[in-house]
Amino acid sequence: MKKYAVIVAAGSGLRMGTSTPKQFLLLHGKPIVWHTIEAFLHAFDDIEIILVMADDYMDTGKKIIQTTKSPDHIRLTAGGETRFHSVKNGIQYIHHPSIVFVHDAVRCLVSQALIHSCYHAAMEKGNAIPAIKSTDSIRIEKENGNEVVDRNKVMIIQTPQTFQSDIIKSAFAQDYSEIFTDEASVVEQQGIKINLVEGEKTNIKITQPIDLIIAEHLLKSKISKSSG
Amino acid sequence: MKKYAVIVAAGSGLRMGTSTPKQFLLLHGKPIVWHTIEAFLHAFDDIEIILVMADDYMDTGKKIIQTTKSPDHIRLTAGGETRFHSVKNGIQYIHHPSIVFVHDAVRCLVSQALIHSCYHAAMEKGNAIPAIKSTDSIRIEKENGNEVVDRNKVMIIQTPQTFQSDIIKSAFAQDYSEIFTDEASVVEQQGIKINLVEGEKTNIKITQPIDLIIAEHLLKSKISKSSG
């Protein structure tokens, strides 16, 4: 089956307190998004990457693509007003029956094992959404205060959110709604059951300065393992 | 107002995959729980610490106490079957009207600022529970699958869970229930409204090897800031 990875890098990175959007910050001398692209290029020889970037950063995107292992496997396209619109712009280039990964550009530590397990689970069940259990107590804010929930039932959702192409394409033909916070919520709106698979604690999302420090060290230990 | 910190170190640390419970693993040459004790000793000159440890580790506990800045401010007591029983054992030594912090031994990076803000909020409102917003999408597992929740309403709960002494003592006089996953849930059971305060992303719980790496680096940056 053909594979596409839609890598969403359209964020502005305000939370980092830097003028550079976080997907362009350097990790071991390369932009975060470069590491993310490489993770998918290494997962499958025949994968196509659709890189979604904000208009202002198209030139930066082009330069980064040229430094990857397979620039001719990567298409660059513009992001939209929200994540929904960015992903919608990205998937319009998918015309073959395929498995589609939608992945946060700032989760550059995703492992080959997780990409492969999402692929197989989505082949079998139509979709595969990686999730991990919470190690902390969780409360939900309500109108009159807040309410504890059973921690064993709380799943923290990651990416790549992975779908058979017909499912994601038909879901993104819907009109936009504010309840669409991720791709799973868009697909679920069509009555499709969301299939959670085991995620990875190390598959972190780099949103704050401390995450960058964590990522540096995870990456170092990953490199020493693969060369050891 | 008098202050007590009940530091709960009765866990077995199975998740670390080490034979040493995680609260005794070394960070910058000192056990994790040593760092935690020091954080509270430095927060207030007049604080008393009640250190709750599993029976098998009482000798280890005694040795660690001797290496802290104020061994005579620390009482060591045995843990119970569950966290509820451990905390209940700890708070029996509190006889003065006071503010009581209940804190995970493995959250050794708690800041002075957070301890102080919990103190003031609990003085004013009876209780103060630190919490941070989730940066990831969250789903709750249900009988027939799972359901997305509004991420802006999901609060990840931390410690020190902080209470006026009469409130926590009367709550822990209740019979044990399986729904008691933290001190807030015990107090809430008595119809008391839980008061969330802003926690800290760096106030991490060391439960897995990766957390230890993260803690090493956070501690290093904390030390370089305080000496800089």
What is this structure's SSE topology?
The structure is a homodimer of 228-residue chains.
Chain A: E1 2-9, E2 26-27, E3 30-31, H1 32-43, E4 47-53, H2 58-66, E5 74-78, H3 83-91, E6 98-104, H4 112-125, E7 127-133, E8 138-142, E9 145-149, E10 154-157, E11 161-164, H5 165-171, H6 183-188, E12 196-198, H7 209-227
Parallel strand pairs in A: 1-4, 1-6, 4-5, 7-12
Antiparallel strand pairs in A: 2-3, 6-11, 7-10, 7-11, 8-9
What can you see in these coordinates?
Chain A is an alpha/beta fold. The first copy, chain A, has one domain (2-227): Spore Coat Polysaccharide Biosynthesis Protein SpsA, Chain A (Alpha-Beta Complex). Chain A has 7 helices and 12 strands. Chain A has helices at 32-43, 58-66, 83-91, 112-125, 165-171, 183-188, 209-227; strands spanning 2-9, 26-27, 30-31, 47-53, 74-78, 98-104, 127-133, 138-142, 145-149, 154-157, 161-164, 196-198. In chain A, strands 1, 4, 5, 6, 7, 10, 11 and 12 form an 8-stranded mixed beta sheet that branches. A two-stranded antiparallel sheet of chain A has the order 2-3. The first copy, chain A, is globular and about 50 Å long. The two termini of chain A are 33 Å apart. The model of chain A has no long low-confidence stretch (mean pLDDT 92). Chain A binds chain B through residues 131, 134-142, 145-146, 148-158, 179, 181-182, 184-185, 188, 193-194, 196, 201-202, 205, 207-208, 210, 213-214, 217-218, 221, and chain B through 131, 134-142, 145-146, 148-158, 179, 181-182, 184-185, 188, 193-194, 196, 201-202, 205, 207-208, 210, 213-214, 217-218, 221. Strand 10 of chain A pairs antiparallel with strand 8 of chain B, so a sheet runs across the interface.
